[in-house]
Amino acid sequence: MNEYSADEFRIWRPAGALNEGYPSKQKAVFRVVAIGNFDGAHRGHAAVAAEVRALAAVAGAGRVPECLALTFDPHPRMFFQPDKPHFRLLASDRRFLGLKRIGFDGAVVLPFNAELAAMSPEAFIREILLERLGADGVVVGEDFHFGKARAGTPAFLAAEGARIGLAVRFVSPFRDENGTVISSSAIRKALAAGDIPAANAMLGYTYAVHGPVIHGEKRGRDLGFPTANMRLDPAFGLAHGIYAVKATVDGQHIKGVANFGRRPHFDNGAPLLETYLFDFSGNLYGKDIEIAFVAYLRAEAKFESLDALISQMNADCLEARRLLA
């Protein structure tokens, strides 16, 4: 299906840039479109959404405002560099929840393929923004480039907008209280460094991953620390180590401690997220759970003995309980 509706947030997925599947448009609606990848739906994206709403309210006075996000799947970087891993902060369904949270009414997801990559800036404005999206306004970053070979510049978009009656607004990079630019790239760097407070501050919420619980080697259970295990995307860029976390299981919020990494004491295998939930017992296999990262405790390590490992795990649990209290 091209259109999906959930709690009034609507998602359209045209099969191609020039295919059917775009949202219909009524004359009474003033539609403003923000263009971007919106990975993380962070505080910077919230500032873009605020500009979209402001433009719709002012320029579209007397008409019903509609605020849409135009985004792409896969990420353009994955199209141009398919062999280079790309760490996406949020899976698509969580990104849409984030877009709804920051104020968008819906999202149009275009497949980024050879057809779209070869489209000229003029064609993108005419055939995508005007003819198919029916945009009355567009909001982009001040460094936005688009079209074949990124030939479309902010100046070109502004000039074309003035010529055809398309309201255009540019948004400067969003800075936090300390003057630091908030971006998806900056958040990825913070997560890669294990700087959870910085990442969460830029996101505006606690970073979390979601997925089904899988069977593991049962080593944690044998040591007295049964874990809920999740296999994450190979490109997942979180620093390997031990974390204080909060889990959501069937609507229940549970504190715990998690290890993300290769388990150097045992096998140095593929990265795995293993979470020990405090004061919990139950069968979680196959269930979808959420693990939210609150603090980084330490790096992974190989210990001299199992007793030394267990002693450190007990210390990790005490520290996590203290931080989560």
Question: In a few lines, what is going on in this structure?
Answer:
30% of the residues lie in helices and 26% in strands. With 325 residues, it is α/β, with parallel strands linked by helices.
SSE run = EEEHEHHEHHEHEHHEHEEEEEH
CATH topology of the largest domain: Rossmann fold
Average pLDDT, rounded to a whole number, is 92
Q: Please give the CATH class of the largest domain.
A: Alpha Beta
The backbone outline, from C-alpha atoms, is: elongated
Number of domains: 2
Please state the CA-atom Rg, rounded to the nearest Å: 23 Å
What count of helical segments does DSSP give? 10
Largest pleated sheet: 7 strands, mixed
Low-confidence stretches: 1-6
CATH superfamily of the largest domain: HUPs
Portion of residues within helices: 25-40%
Distance between the termini: 45 Å
* Strand arrangement, major sheet: 1-2-5-4-3-6-7
CATH architecture level-2 label of the largest domain: 3-Layer(aba) Sandwich
Strand content: 25-35%
Total beta strands: 13
